[in-house]
Amino acid sequence: MKIIDAHTHIDYIAPDVDGVVCCATKESEWQKIIDLMKIDARVYGAFGIHPWFINDIIFGWDGRLIQLLQTNPNYMVGEIGLDKYKPNMEKQLEVFVKQFDIAVQLKRIVFIHCVGAWDKILHILKQYKKSELPIIVFHDFNANENILLKLLQYKNIFFSLGKNAVYGKNCRIEQIPSDKILIETDAMADIVLIDIVNEISKTKNESNMADIIYDNAQRVLKHE
Ligand SMILES: [Zn+2]
Q1: What domain range is 184 assigned to?
Q2: Which tens digits make up the pLDDT trace of 88-107?
Q3: How many Å lie between the centroid of ligand 1 and the Cα of residue 123?
Q4: Ligand 1 centroid distance, CA of 8 (Å)
Q5: For the chain: N or C, fewer Cβ within 10 A?
């Protein structure tokens, strides 16, 4: 069984995966991820600033992000997002919109963290033509049915399932099409990816879910 972890961070790379997306949370991690990619061919890097760490930003970060992405066409954008339970939504929005636009303009896959800010995310998506949006992965997806239906109108959106799938929270496994599902540890060593695959297989009554999820990740990472 081949497995790709669609979302982790620099402090935890699951030992038994065939591929892994390592998302930065702040600029000081960018070089660490680049160094890791050099020694571990399984690692795909995503670069950006997480909404929890917007207070750490250093002037000129956006120009440096653009330059990093332009010189490395295979680099992705992440982890960026909005989180209602963290301070300073205005600043979060400013930093998110800037990074999302960079991902759109440079046509990069983007990994998004959204907690309780779906109205804002949906509004931002509407500012773009559907055809110009890159592949978007919502990590640790968890939202109501109404939001999921709106997101499913975009064919480039994927849903990464992690701790919420294990702990039985509302991640809408039944309603997400099988070809849009990814799985993730989000850097939690106690998350066993095979358990998530099994949970999805059981809910969807689909025996080859591991292969489907692996193919989905390949499609995202290799643009197949
Ligand atoms: Zn994360």
Answers
A1: 4-222
A2: 999 999 999 999 999 999 99
A3: 23
A4: 6
A5: C
